[in-house]
């Protein structure tokens, strides 16, 4: 039986060493865009847009 001593801090350190600045900025921009959308769009508008997108993608949701 092997014990795994990998901690969350170790994983953050590994990710920090492997992720380049462009990838980090892209991820941050995506999170900011999603946050802006959720914060400033009215919920019914966002819901209807996502509903229409799902139908456009061929996903049956009801």
Write the layout of secondary structure elements.
Layout: H1 8-18, H2 21-40, H3 43-56
Q: What this model shows, in words?
A:
The chain is mainly α and 62 residues long. It has a domain at 21-62. The chain contains three helices and no strands. It has helices at 8-18, 21-40, 43-56. The radius of gyration is 19 Å and the shape is elongated. It comes from Halorubrum coriense DSM 10284. This is Cobalt transporter subunit CbtB. Keywords: Membrane, Transmembrane, Transmembrane helix. Pfam families: CbtB. The chain crosses the membrane at residues 22-41.
Care to give the gist of this entry?
The protein has 62 residues and is an all-alpha fold.
